[in-house]
From TrEMBL:
<dbReference type="InterPro" id="IPR035810">
    <property type="entry name" value="PEBP_euk"/>
</dbReference>
<dbReference type="Pfam" id="PF01161">
    <property type="entry name" value="PBP"/>
</dbReference>
<keyword id="KW-0175">Coiled coil</keyword>
<protein>
    <recommendedName>
        <fullName>Large ribosomal subunit protein mL38</fullName>
    </recommendedName>
</protein>
<dbReference type="InterPro" id="IPR008914">
    <property type="entry name" value="PEBP"/>
</dbReference>
<keyword id="KW-0687">Ribonucleoprotein</keyword>
<keyword id="KW-0732">Signal</keyword>
<keyword id="KW-0496">Mitochondrion</keyword>
<comment type="similarity">
    <text>Belongs to the phosphatidylethanolamine-binding protein family. Mitochondrion-specific ribosomal protein mL38 subfamily.</text>
</comment>
<keyword id="KW-0809">Transit peptide</keyword>
<dbReference type="InterPro" id="IPR036610">
    <property type="entry name" value="PEBP-like_sf"/>
</dbReference>
<dbReference type="GO" id="GO:0005840">
    <property type="term" value="C:ribosome"/>
</dbReference>
<keyword id="KW-0689">Ribosomal protein</keyword>
<dbReference type="GO" id="GO:1990904">
    <property type="term" value="C:ribonucleoprotein complex"/>
</dbReference>
<dbReference type="GO" id="GO:0005739">
    <property type="term" value="C:mitochondrion"/>
</dbReference>
<feature type="signal peptide">
    <location>
        <begin position="1"/>
        <end position="17"/>
    </location>
</feature>
Amino acid sequence: MLSSLITITTLLALSNAQSWVPSGDLPVDFTLTFSAPEMVYDVCNRNFTQSARTFTVATTGVAVTPGETANDPTAMTITGASSGDMFTILMVDPDTPSANVGTTEKPLLHMIITNITNADPSTGAVLDPYRGPMPPPCSGDHTYHYLLLRQTAALSLTVDDLPTYTPDCSLANLAGRCLFEVANFISSNQLTPVCYVTMVAATDGYVRYNYVNDRGRFFIFQRRLPSSKHCT
């Protein structure tokens, strides 16, 4: 009986695993640094306070809040690269509550930078700028995946090419972002994962503030909740 339970648990874990997530020891280190300011959000007759702090994301499973990762990373650092290496950075969210926006295999794109040289992300071409976590209320934890991918040569991709990797995306305002085919993107561009880090975030005061005060701007297509749900 115990053996059967273990087998079922293993199969469930495998079914939930993304095929594009690398495994084993990876040869390069990638670190993101965020500097969050102190903020107070007044929403639904409640105050949410965000303390100022500077922190890094350099491993998997780093707990963060949307408020403190709302702004672009203050630094992205690549170490352990070989001379002449070129890289792409990909950030995705496979935990969106709407299957029209993202799934385990085809997540929502949050950032893509290509043709990074000299191990310096600021040299790269930003095809899709950083968009911080904005997990909808009642959608649980979202894991935001960063993949550092080594290129074999310079990529000629432009922002107009991104919809090529989102053929199932039917949302015009998310063209090139929703249902992003990560595995296809990696294989068709001959990319190799060399580092992988993640951060985990759930709804906080920052998210609730934006849903209540600027709902048209932030992913309301993911889940249309009545205003009262944003205040629970």
